[in-house]
Amino acid sequence: MSTHKVGFFVGSLSSSSINRVLSKALIRLAPSELELTEIPIGNLPLYSPDFDTDYPPEPVALKEALAASDAVLFVTPEYNRSIPGALKNAIDWASRPWGRNSFDHMPAAVIGASPGQIGTALAQQSLRAVLSFCNARQMTAPEAYINFRPGLFTDDGEVTDESTAAFLADFMQEFHMHTERVLTVIPRS
Ligand SMILES: Cc1cc2nc3c(=O)[nH]c(=O)nc-3n(C[C@H](O)[C@H](O)[C@H](O)COP(=O)(O)O)c2cc1C
Fold first, then answer.
1. The whole model's pTM is what?
2. Ligand 1: does its nearest atom lie under 6 Å from the Cβ of 80?
3. Which atom of ligand 1 is nearest to the CA of 11?
4. What would you report as the CA-atom Rg of the chain, rounded to the nearest whole angstrom?
């Protein structure tokens, strides 16, 4: 199978983000054909259509990073049963200006961790609706709602529990195959 560049978003600006720890685990467990690079969102101004004719440097960099990626992965917390504002802001920038939507036909996957029992399920549901409108080609299964408990991961993303490690490795393998399928039919231009 081919090698693919995956740009990933961490939907948290927290310096101690459990979702960033999860992203480190995913990098460790991903098949070698996936090359993962974080696309930062913390320095983006708030989106306004006033910028559509002249994007500032940070959103230009965001759109360039997505253009250089074959697929996109969202690793996000749930805020108030929905998408964290910083992540939604990044998506809004990437989806514009009209006619230059960076997510169009892009292979995409969603995962998230929370200390709560439903493991970001409602944030992911909201995010999936947004990505659907943005015409991203989402992996619909497996779903991944990670219930984060102390000790499950080390700070640098080692997974201490064998079944969780196997589940996350399978998720990334499935994402690789999904990406491969989408790009076979709709190559990135
Ligand atoms: C503004 C805010 C809203 C939150 N809302 C939810 C929620 O709806 N569901 C949930 O499971 N956890 C919620 N939490 C708790 C987060 O899951 C927890 O803070 C988690 O560590 C956030 O992920 P992060 O460490 O990657 O930033 C919320 C936290 C904050 C700060």
1. 0.98
2. yes
3. 26
4. 16
Each residue's pLDDT tens digit, 33-79: 999 999 999 999 999 999 999 999 999 999 999 999 999 999 999 99
Q: What DSSP character marks residue 58?
A: H
**CB neighbourhood size of 121 (10 A):** 16
The partner residues of 4 in beta bridges, in order of sequence, read 34
Length of the chain measured in residues: 189
Contact 137, 70 (CB under 8 A): no
Nearest by Cα to 91 from 135, 122, 143 = 135
- Angle (CA) 140 134 21, round 5°: 60
Residue 16 tokens, joined: 């101690």
Report cis status (omega within 30 of 0) of the bond before 97: yes
**66-93 pLDDT, tens per residue?**
999 999 999 999 999 999 999 999 999 9
Ligand 1 pocket test: pick from 80, 117, 147 the residue with the most ligand atoms within 8 Å of its Cβ.
80
